[in-house]
Amino acid sequence: MADTGKPMFADSERVLCYHGPLLYESKCIKFEIDDNNGKMKYLIHYNGWNKNWDEWVPEDRVLKYNDENLQLQKDLKLRYPNVRRTRKKMGEKEKGASTPSAIDKATSRVEPTRRKRGRNEQSIESEDGVTAKGEIKIKLPEEMKRWLIDDYDFINRQKRLIKLPRKFAVDDILDSYIKEKRGSPAAVSGLAREITLGLRTYFNSMLGSQLLYKFERPQYAEILKTNSKDTSLSQIYGAEHLLRLFVKLGNVMTYTTLDEKNINLVQHFVDDILMYIHRNESTFLTSEYETAPPEYNRKLI
Predict the structure, then answer these.
(1) pTM
(2) Which residues of the chain have pLDDT under 50?
(3) Where do the CATH 1.10.274.30 domains begin and end in the chain?
(4) Which CATH class, in words, describes the domain spanning 14-94?
(5) Sign of CA dihedral 59, 31, 41, 110
(6) What's phi and psi for 97, nearest 5 deg?
(7) In CATH, what is the architecture of 142-298?
């Protein structure tokens, strides 16, 4: 069903837009309804970047240009001081832009986020020689899908929030999974450590730009304000947001230097982690959603 509501942002409006974990000053060129999901999308130009970087983005990646969001932009820069700039200079693309360095060691380099499109291509060669394969399928257990559906309903329809920080955060879950693998052969436990390191890096990099619903953004801004930059988001958010990462992961890994054998290896461990969460869902997944106060709702206006 098409979104019949008014667009949040007007043509030529000055905005802030997420690209990777950071916010950039941008301009909304135009907007339209996305035929695929019936939701509003916006064509964004990043100020000072070559127009080749213009891209269509969903509404939840765009923020109003105001003092509160400018402060969020500064907080994100402080939290992610080592994120490489997405461009070297105006008009020149940086290969592997916005990819966290730690992920290179763990699951190889992913990106760019923009891709050349062709209807019939099974594989597309990007400018830096990284091959875009068909989307990698991450299969969530049916029970986990139901958790995600309920999570969506709690937040977007009932306007409730997950209580943070979570008792068992993403780091706790992945550390617990590694401990379970210590009885496995050394090669398996070593791979488990490397892959969970990569997942943590993905999570911390993607949370702000891709894993939050719009209603959660003021809560996220408050988390950044009240926690030191040495506190990782994976120490605060829990399994609910980790499941959202797994939903996105297949598409993110479309661009990768990994060969088919190693992609299958990553998929195996992701499937195994999902089953581990499923076996411990009463511990890791929450029903602790709290009603947002009226002043919280005013921040969304």
Answers:
(1) 0.67
(2) 1-4, 86-132
(3) 142-298
(4) mainly beta
(5) negative
(6) -60, 145
(7) Orthogonal Bundle (1.10)
